[in-house]
Every structure is written in structure tokens, then in C-alpha cells.
User: Which sequence fits this backbone?
């Protein structure tokens, strides 16, 4: 049971501090999104201590990233994403192998136990597409070729991350069921491919008919929300993250939704996305770095996390030219909440020490913080390209 | 820690069942809002058992009723509400005394202990204005004279309810600090009157200036949310419910907010209000009525709850004519979550037995269920009064 003030007070502190710092960053020409994450660090337990992570914020953060990906999906046509599938697959695979090897290698050289090193590698695998999606959406760049590859690669990346997680979990228990892992991977891939391929067509056929027959006020919005939540649930059951389902739902609806339902969805996202961003900042804990050794390791891991994704994904996209390869490499850098989830499992099962957990959380928060300015640099000169734009076939 | 599926699954079950039953009710010409409450009873632990009340739903329900009252407030001009202040005061006072006396009297005659009887009376005092507000808003009737009196009376009612609660809590502890109670009441009244009187003027002066100077996307929405959360927090500190603050915030912004920010707010309310309604239904527990005696008492209390508010508030508004008096009497009937909160305190402190708690919850849910059709009857023939205010229909 919460006290009566907990909910409105959490709303006020999180939302308002996020918007204030976002405004400040926009004024000095920096991406507002960094301001919102910084707001979390600022009001969090280790600086002002106005707010600690709580249930209210966590639930709204989870919903926030769902709506963020849903909104990003709504700007993407499924057919356009499928067209870059080949390149995206290369980007995703290289973007999993290189960071995993880097994380594992560094920790092993540092003298950490074998299993802990593998877990650190696994925590460096999964890209958090929310940050990149938000930056690109805010600048009207979702229609670019590079943005599409990033989004498609991030979805595949999530499936690969799932398989990596299944493998390391098996390792940690000392038992490995390869059939199980193969089935899990196949189900996740099958679900994603199926919705991406048939979702949009189905929605365009079914939605207008359903919407026009309903008596409910704002029926189209109600249907859109139902699709969003249903696909998020199915995604979890299929083994991928709820946000992949949310992204697929947005994409399925992207050509079937009119502006009224879009505006209403936009309102929800405007309210909830700051909770996702602030919640990342709230996780930041400088207290983990009690020894200068740990701090040094954290900086090395951070450098490796940035470099390995940039190089891995960049190489995967090299046939698109160096400009786009660099954009894609940068876009895949943020690890956000995904790395923290893996590290959380490691900590809970006793595989990861508190120090290494702190290193991974630091890496997750910092890769997320550096991505927006890097993206701004990488996309310099590119102005918002309308989604309609006809593009050459790739991959 | 929740499992990954809990949040999207709660969203899907609650939102979609609410909208499906709302659609069903609209189709047969009944208020959709009853369908949404029924959805909670249907999927709740005692029928289909698909869903039990959980943290996700409770938090979203609390936010939902805040946004509901905020949205209702946005359709009301403060000056118009102040104009009906005298009548509203009469309605509120009579609407507190008569139900309190009825609840106390019935339980005493039934042979319940003195303090439990007083608590039951207290639980019958506070009107839940959310339901009435939603019904009137959905039918475009917020501009009517009766609607304004209902809203003003509900705000005063909340303050009186606070004082009653302070008194019965004191009684339950066996100590009564009259000075404390007087101070609490004065602070609550002062806060409410102050915001109602000066909020709108201040917002009209400050908001356009702030909005035009901000670099943030959707700056006006961000400011509106900040006002909403800030006044909700202040309301709790002043001793009234957060939703009173939300209503006052809406009213303060009603003449200073443009349609874009309204649409975004509307989206949030569309998503969250069903959680408030379904959560009421989820509380319904027929298991409380193990004996036919308890069921009989529940029906008597329910009848008294409806009649006492109708008579008390109707008498208070009699000088407005019998039609409006009946409308106001009916509009004040729903007790919604407020009665349940009082009963919850009674149960937790051991003053109320499980059986009487069940009776109060039954009364709260049922008064909420009967209000929409009664309102429909009472406002028959009245069509939405847009007049000068070109307000969008909500609901």
C-alpha cells in the first residue's frame, strides 16, 4: 500500500525534472533525451536523493518504452523494413559476436572468473533501440535508409540476445538443452517474421471495417491499444521482449491508423517516455566504484562496449557505404535497460559480483548517454526525410 | 519484481475487456461506463478469475481517476463554478449529514457496535465524482447548471469527508484533537478556495508566455502535466484527495489550454480511465455474503446509500427547481473508491469486521453501477449544451 502522495509526487518529480533538463539541453543545442536521463541521475538516490526507483516509476517506465517503440513502429512501413532484412541480419550478427567477445575477453584478461566473464559479455550484446529510435524520431530521420537498418537489426538483435541469454543461463546452471534453445530461437524468429510479413496487410484489411462498425467513442484508438497489448503479450510468450511486440504492433498499424488515433497515442507516449528515460538515470550508482581498479575496469568496458558495437555493426553495414555504416554503428551503441536486465539475473543467481554488476550498469547508462550526441554528429547534414521517399533496394 | 508478461497482460485484459463490454452496453443503449465496471467483476477473482487486483492496475487506476477529474475540470470555467457555490455548499452539507445519519442509524438498529456503526456512516459520506463526471462528459452535459452544482458540491463534499474521517479516526483511537481537526479543515478549504479563485487567472496570464518561450516539443502539454501533478501533490499535503487537486488543475487550465494539449491529455485519459473503472469492479466480492443476514443488511445499506444522498442533496438543491434537484441528487449517489478507502481503514484498524467491510464495498460498487442509468433518466431530454463553449465530446 502506498501513501496517497506517492503517485502524484513520483509523477511530479520524474516528469517535471525530465522536462526541465530536456528544455535546458535543447536550449544549448544538445539532444533533450540526455537531459531526461541526467534528470534521473540528478534526482536519484546518489545526488539529490529526492527519489529512489519505485514501483510506480518502474511500471510507467516499462509502459513508456512500450509506447516509445510502438510510436517508432507507427512511422515505419513493414515492407520497407523487410527490404533491408539482409543487411540488418549481418549488422545484428556482427553486432552480437564482437561485443560478446570483447566483454568476455576483457574480463578474462582482468582475471575475473570464467562464468562471470561470459555473463559480462552477454550483458554487452543487446542493443536498446529505444534511445536511438527516440532520437531519430525527434529529428524526423526514421525515413532514412540507415534508420531502417538500425530498427530491423535491433529486432533481430533482440532475438539473438535471447538465444545468448538462454545459453549463458544454461551454462550458469551447468546444464545445456540445445533442443530447447533451438526451439526457443525458432519460435521467436517465427513470431517476429510472421507479424512483420502479414501484420500490416491484415491490419489494413480488418481495421477500417472494425472501426466503422463500433459504437464506442475513439474506437480506433481502442483497437490500436488492443493490438499493441496483444502483440506485446504474444511477444513475451514467443520469447522476445514485450517492446519487440510493441514495435511490430506499431508497424502493423502504421498504414491503417488515422491521425486522431495517432494523436491520442502520441499523448500517452509524451507522458510515459520520460519515465523510461529517468528510470535509466535512477539506476546510476557511483557507489559501485569504491576501488579505482573497478573504475578503471568500468571505463575499459565502456570503451569496449562502444567500440565493439560500432565496429561490429559498422562492418556488417559496410556495403551501404561508410557514411551509413558509421550511422548504423553509432545507432546500435546504446544498451539501456537490456544490459541491466542480464546483469540483474547474474547478480541474483550469485554469478556476478556487486562490483561487476556496477560496471555493467555503468556501461548501460553511459552507452545510452553518449549515443544521442554521436547520432547527432553521424546524421549531420541529413534533414528529416519524409517516410514516403523511394529508396533503392538494399540487401 | 514482476514477470515480463505481467504488465502487458494486465493492460490487455483490463483495457480490452473494458472496451468490449463498453461497446456491448453502448449497442443496447446503456452507458458504456457500466460495461467497464462490469468487466472488472467479470474478469475479477470471483467470476472468470483471469485477473486479481495488482499493483499495475492499482497504480494505473489511481492515475486514471486523476486524469478523469483533470479532463472534467478542463471543461469547467472556475467563475461558473464559483457562481453556484452557495447552492453547492447546501447540497454538500445535506449530502453528508443525511447519509452519515442513515448509515449510523441502520447499523445501530442492526445491533452492530457503536464505533463500527459510526465508521459505516462515515464510509457512506463521500461522493465519488469520477463516475458522474465521466457520464456527464460523455454526453456533453458538463455545461448544464446541475452539472456545475454537482462538481462544486463534490469538491466541498471531499473536504467535509476529510473532516468526518478525521473525527472518526480520532474516535477510533479514543482521543480527539479538535484544534487539529479545525486546522486540517481550514487548510483544505483554504487551498481549494485559493486555487479555484486565482488559478485560472494566473494560468491565463503565465501559461502563454511560458509556452511560447520554451524550446521543448509539446511544451504546452508538459506545462499542463506539471500543473496537474503539482496541484495533486499540494492537495494531498493540504489534506484533500489528489483528485481534487487534479480537478482544480484542470479548471485552472481550462481557459489557457489549446486543442493540441487537450488532445494529448485526452489520449492519456482514454487509456487510463478504464483502469479506474475496471478496478472498481475487481473489488466486488460476493464471498462476503456468506450469511443471508449480511446480504439483507447489504441491500438495506445500499438502499439507504442511494436514498440518503438523493434526498439530502436533492433537498439542498431544491431552490433550483425539482428537475435540477433530482439531477443533482442522482449525480451525488456514486461512492466509488472513496467509501472503500474509509472501509479499508476501518478493516485495517480492526474496527470493522470483514462482513461489514464487504457490505460497504458492495454499497460502493453498486451505487456506482446504478448512477449512470439513473443519470440518463434524470437528464432525459437534455442535449449537450455547447453554447459558447465549443467543447469536444469526451468519453
Assistant:
Amino acid at each position: 500500500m502506498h501513501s496517497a502522495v506517492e503517485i502524484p509526487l513520483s509523477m511530479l518529480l520524474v516528469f517535471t525534472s525530465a522536462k526541465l533538463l530536456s528544455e535546458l539541453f535543447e536550449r544549448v543545442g544538445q539532444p533533450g533525451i540526455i537531459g531526461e536521463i541526467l534528470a534521473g541521475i540528478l534526482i536519484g538516490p546518489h545526488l539529490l536523493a529526492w527519489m529512489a526507483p519505485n514501483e510506480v516509476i518502474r511500471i510507467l517506465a516499462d509502459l513508456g518504452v512500450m509506447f516509445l517503440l510502438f510510436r517508432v513502429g507507427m512511422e515505419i512501413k513493414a515492407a520497407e523494413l523487410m527490404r533491408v532484412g539482409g543487411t540488418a541480419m549481418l549488422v545484428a550478427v556482427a553486432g552480437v559476436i564482437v561485443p560478446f567477445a570483447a566483454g568476455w575477453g576483457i574480463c578474462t584478461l582482468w582475471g575475473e572468473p570464467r562464468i562471470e566473464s561470459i555473463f559480462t559479455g552477454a550483458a554487452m550484446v543487446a542493443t536498446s533501440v529505444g534511445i536511438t529510435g527516440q532520437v531519430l524520431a525527434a529529428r524526423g530521420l526514421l525515413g532514412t535508409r540507415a534508420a531502417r537498418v538500425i530498427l530491423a537489426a535491433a529486432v533481430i538483435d533482440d532475438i539473438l540476445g535471447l538465444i545468448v541469454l538462454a545459453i549463458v543461463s544454461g551454462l550458469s546452471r551447468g546444464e545445456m538443452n540445445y533442443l530447447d534453445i533451438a526451439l526457443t530461437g525458432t519460435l521467436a524468429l517465427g513470431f517476429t517474421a510472421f507479424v512483420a510479413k502479414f501484420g500490416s496487410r491484415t491490419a489494413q484489411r480488418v481495421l477500417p471495417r472494425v472501426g466503422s462498425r463500433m459504437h464506442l467513442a475513439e474506437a480506433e484508438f481502442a483497437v490500436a491499444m488492443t493490438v499493441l497489448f496483444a502483440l506485446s503479450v504474444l511477444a513475451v510468450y514467443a520469447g522476445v521482449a514485450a517492446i519487440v511486440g510493441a514495435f511490430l504492433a506499431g508497424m502493423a498499424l502504421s498504414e491503417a491508423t488515422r491521425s486522431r488515433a495517432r494523436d491520442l497515442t502520441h499523448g500517452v507516449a509524451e507522458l510515459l517516455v520520460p519515465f523510461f528515460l529517468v528510470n535509466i538515470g535512477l539506476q546510476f550508482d557511483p557507489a559501485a566504484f569504491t576501488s579505482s581498479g573497478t573504475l578503471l575496469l568500468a571505463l575499459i568496458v565502456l570503451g569496449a562496449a562502444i567500440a565493439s558495437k560500432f565496429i561490429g555493426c559498422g562492418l556488417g553495414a559496410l556495403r551501404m557505404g561508410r557514411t551509413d555504416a558509421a550511422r548504423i554503428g553509432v545507432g546500435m551503441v546504446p544498451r539501456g535497460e537490456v544490459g541491466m536486465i542480464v546483469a540483474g539475473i547474474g547478480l541474483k543467481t550469485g554469478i556476478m559480483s556487486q562490483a561487476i554488476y556496477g560496471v555493467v550498469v555503468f556501461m548501460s547508462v553511459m552507452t545510452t548517454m553518449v549515443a544521442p550526441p554521436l547520432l547527432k554528429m553521424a546524421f549531420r547534414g541529413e534533414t528529416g526525410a519524409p517516410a514516403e521517399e523511394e529508396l533503392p533496394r538494399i540487401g
About this structure: Residues 37 and 280 of chain B are 6 Å apart (CA to CA). The domain at 63-378 of chain B is CATH 1.20.1530.20 (Na+/H+ antiporter like fold).
